Amino acid sequence: MLYREAGDFKTSYRDDGQTFPIRLDRWGYYAILAVAFLVVPLVIDSYWANAVLVPFLIYAIAAIGLNILTGYAGQVSLGTGGFMAVGAYAVYKLMTAFPGVPIVLLIVVAGVITAIVGVLFGLPSLRIKGFYLAVATLAAQFFLVWLFNKVPWFYNYSASGQINAPERTMFGWAITGPATTAPAKYLTCLIFAVVLAWVARNLTRGTVGRKWMAIRDMDIAAEIIGVNPLTAKLSAFAVSSFFIGIAGALLFSVYLGAAEASEAFGINKSFLVLFMIIIGGLGSIFGSFAGAAFLVLLPVLLKNVLVAQLGWPTDLAAHIELMIVGALIIFFLIVEPHGLARLWQLTKEKLRLWPFPH
Amino acid sequence: MEFLYASEVLLNGLMAGIMYSLVALGFVLIYKASGVFNYAQGVMALFAAMTLVGIMEGRVPFAHLINAMFGMHVTNFGWTVPAILGIALTALIMVGLAIAIEKLVLKHLVGQEPIILFMATIGLAWFLEGLGDVMWGADVKTLDVGLPQGISETIEAATDRWLGYGFFVDRLDVWAAGIAALLVAALVGFAQYTKQGRAMRAVADDHQAALSVGISLQFIWVMVWSIAGFVALVAGIMWGTKSGVQFSLSLIALKALPVLMLGGFTSIPGAIVGGLIIGMGEKLFEYFIGPMVGGATENWFAYVLALIFLVFRPQGLFGERIIERV
């Protein structure tokens, strides 16, 4: 019989508390990882990489970041696009200033810089909360994008105001720049996504994560039982911005190759990532991946069906996509506030009992 | 001369502020009566303006969709509708929209946290934006309901005679200020002196208590969203006449948000004063500081001002004090 935990005996607390307590689940994830690392790079072509897999992995990282802030720590942020821009411009300045340093290291440093900026904009969260804070984070969004548009130092005084990723290599492979192959792009993003998801999972189930969740559930009560709201909130902003900064750095350097602040990192990007975590599931790492996959695939699917199959105009398909996403947001908020992650969990519960419903 | 020019900038800032207040009013109304922070207010203004243009020009709704689905080429009915009738029909459609929102969204979200409701209205904003585009097409439309436009010669001549410098004031802005003042007076009168207005305030104070004395929550919500739809229509007409009916119209909602943070979410006078402060502040800042930092500071000035202000006074200028209990 499929999907049973009978005979899967736990003999230590360590076994009982692992991320995937059911053996079949665990092997399933190992299998997915093996396929993702060993099989996909061999068969991937540039359409799949550019249209589906690379954006999926990058948005998944951003969604994990926002999920840490919004889903785990309860601080709604609409500044994601601005923080992604910080990551992108930070990695651009670092790439041009230190050509000899490995690009992967620079991307991590860009994440750290974004974390510092995130903490600065997170400071008001100590005084204001709820949608007052959500609106306040819009200040970060608009101010940062304006800054990158208006201060020439950030885009190295280039005539177009754009930033272009120069070519950088790792182990002889081009990671950024126009010569990058599809497998290289994909593997870079995959490694970042897997490592960061692992870090996020372990952060959120440890002490730090419990403090965040206490703040989310009732911040005053959390303060009374000894959670320091200052460190809890600011650490959530720091970690979240770190993830989002790395996503922004990858989006610019590996995926797009060239970017312009107001176009690539506008307010719609903030909403897109917010929608990913609502649809995927607030407070769930798996949900971040599910939501990112859903919102990356939906436009591709609609384009294939409506434009390619039925021959509808592209702009009509885009407007219908807006309607569908909007309706889905409302649907998930009403029917299943925990999103796709909860649906997946329910499916697993049902499978474990199948064929008996009780 | 410098001073006179600055005061012209100030005056125009005040006029822009009145337009922000118009949008902010819609927010305050809904927030007061249902505790919902309605991000979709700006898109409602866009939707109302699009519908008004569509009706007045006799466009076929969903023309693009019909054409794409059945391979037809319909665009117009071939008639035009006078402005007054068009406005009345659009107001009816906004009432219909209010009923639909109550039935499909709000009813199912009673008792949820405010932040969930806020996110739901972001979803609503996307849906309405898509719906408006599918219904009426995404092209830039011109809206003309007969409001006067262009520079006001009277004011220019008068200021030229008294001060030796002609102030440039758009006549549309003057009209907008007048209409906004009327609307505020009407709304305040409605809330203070009518039975429905009292019921609305009761719902705002306490849902449960209002229900137990026999006030229909459903009716109040539909009413409030209808009024907000009407305010959105007025704002849509003003902004649409000024700069054309297009996507950027929905962004005025983003301008109204800092106005509210500054003025306090629950206060109608707060929306007005907040709007004036923001309108004035951003024009003056752009005039004095803007050239030093590269311009276009209007994008973020309002937000940063509101953010700094909130850190010192979290409930805004006129907002009710936030009391929290565990």
Helix/strand-derived class of chain A? Answer: mainly alpha
The proportion of residues forming helix of chain A, as a percent range, comes to over 70%
CATH class of chain B: Mainly Alpha
> Number of helical segments of chain A?
15
**How much is the radius of gyration of chain A in Å?**
21 Å
Number of helices of chain B: 14
Shape of chain A: globular
**Largest sheet of chain A at a glance?**
2 strands, antiparallel
Number of strands of chain A: 4
How large a portion of the residues of chain B is in β-strands, by DSSP E? Answer: under 5%
Helix content of chain B: over 70%
- Euclidean distance between termini CA atoms of chain A: 17 Å
SSE pattern of chain B, N- to C-terminal: HHHHHHHHHHHHHH
Shape summary of chain B: globular
- The topology string of helices and strands of chain A comes to HHHHHHEEEHHHHEHHHHH
Number of strands of chain B: 0
Overview of the structural elements:
The complex is a heterodimer of chains A (358) and B (326). Chain A is mostly helical. Helices cover 72% and strands 3% of the residues of chain A. Chain A has helices at 13-16, 23-43, 46-72, 80-97, 103-122, 130-150, 182-204, 207-217, 219-224, 229-256, 261-264, 267-280, 285-309, 314-335, 339-353; strands spanning 163-164, 168-170, 173-176, 258-259. In chain A, the strands form two sheets. Chain A has a two-stranded antiparallel sheet. In chain A, strands 2-3 form a two-stranded antiparallel sheet. In chain A, a hairpin with a 2-residue loop joins strand 2 (168-170) and strand 3 (173-176). Chain A is globular. Chain B has 326 residues and is mainly alpha-helical. Chain B has one domain: Orthogonal Bundle (ABC transporter involved in vitamin B12 uptake, BtuC), CATH 1.10.3470. Chain B has helices spanning 2-34, 41-56, 63-70, 83-104, 114-136, 153-163, 171-193, 195-205, 207-212, 217-243, 252-263, 268-288, 290-293, 301-312. Chain B is globular and about 60 Å long. Chain B starts with a helix and ends in a 14-residue tail after the last helix. The chains are: A mainly alpha (358), B mainly alpha (326). Chains A and B meet through helix 6, helix 9, helix 12 and helix 14 of A and helix 3, helix 5, helix 11 and helix 14 of B.
